Amino acid sequence: MMVGESLVVSLCLSFRKASHVRLEWGGARAHSTLLHERGFVIGEKHRRGAEGWARLPAHACRPGMAVTRAMLATTAVGMSASLCRAVMEGLLTRWRTLPAQATCRLQLSGSIPCGLHHCASGRRKRLVLSRMFQPQNLREDQVLSLEGRSGELTCKSQRLMLQVGLIHPASPGCYHLLPYTVRAMEKLVRVIDQEMQAIGGQKVNMPSLSSAELWRATNRWDLMGKELLRLRDRHGKEYCLGPTHEEAVTALVASQKTLSYKQLPFLLYQVTRKFRDEPRPRFGLLRGREFYMKDMYTFDSSTEAAWHTYSLVCGAYCSLFNRLGLPFVKVQADVGSIGGMMSHEFQLPVDVGEDQLAICPSCSFSANMETLDLSQMNCPVCQGPLTKTKGIEVGHTFYLGTKYSSIFNAQFTNVHGKPSLAEMGCYGLGVTRILAAAIEVLSTEDCIRWPGLLAPYQVCLIPPKRGSKEEGATELLGSLHDHIAEALPQLHGEVLLDDRTHLTIGNRLKDANKLGYPFVIIAGKRALEDPSHFEVWCQNTSEVVFLTKEGVVELLSTVQVV
Fold first, then answer.
1. Which terminus of the chain, N or C, has less C-beta within 10 A?
2. pLDDT value at position 317?
3. Closest Cα partner for 181 from 305, 291, 79, 87?
């Protein structure tokens, strides 16, 4: 069989069938049976300049692939069916060996290549910076206008989080948490969940609205004073927006009348919004009226078991802060309005901290100064001199005994078949405060630095400026993105593409530095070399290296995510 004078196949988009890529040829009719056998769907086109078409499943193609005449054209007059078969088999072989992860629609127009957009279909999408809701206020005067008086900008974390669009003020002591912050907070909650559940914690969710009756039963309705945010419903019943949930959780456990010692201990925890009517909110997320907290409440069958649980939770807190890479100190503390028999705080030493700490460099003793006699300047354990420092409280633990279980009659049946009161403990972590405190401790004056596990995005890719000499490296960076997605599935959703190609690489690198992505990868002049080398900024170590595509993947394979 003879096929026409020439065969020229080109790649274009099938708008009606987005799951396929359409191949068109002109000046000849190809052997439809042959194409059908090779996986094509055959049809006829009734448009001048094209006499037939074939569709290839999109999974065999990659976005933005160029198909040249040199690859696909044969100019031999009187081409035979066997030669046509060889051309088509070669074409199909080329496509089927290309990366299978590229399942997006091909885009044939637009000044920005398709790889810089979200893909409408397919499992892997390219996240692009231009679509992020992130109202940046990079000038100092803009930040000051957000918070009113300049004197209210009293710490580094508050200023930086406002500047780069992590938070936005809603009212005094209350902030909108914007997408980057929410991502970081969700990661922190996952780490907390891992640590709490590793010691037997069970997650619950209790109402923020708490009845005044519960708080009056413990006398804390009056003891808490103006810190409680109080309200009445239309029937005149009083409530508060809970700053903590000792009353609520103890009443919940007390309502279970058939508890046995065999079921204990219970370690019940939640991560919810808390409310406190601060007289003077300040320091951004470090001291506000509305905040997120992890609060755990434990119920044990004996004093010995309760102390064991107390030690377990303290150990989990130490593990948490070690995983985050945050320098902390565990100090003895006052029980305050929560009460109980023993209390410890977990503090991050930093100058902006509101707590005064005493630490002995000679032994393991450390305490909040409010627990010590101010005239005593020697360590009560080794009699050595104490060093004073300031800290931000990010965690607090209390051994409560039967303070609350006796009021609400939270009982269980003991080994002798007799009713006994549960021994309790309560344990708090300031979730939003940990985020702000970490930024306060780790960041420079101008640039945010995150704990590695909490960075909102692990990688930022910066392509060349549109119209620059390096613009040809844009497609190479897109290929790198897809290679990372294929080789490192654990980084799915962690790679962000800065597609603002109207800006220079330098301007976008400056923004990336401020936002604190752990890794920034730039397609610059050396990306056009053979082989391509990408400029990699390791923000947390201040290193800059040039790596091939394989080197980048090897580096990123060490990144830990939650």
1. N
2. 98
3. 291
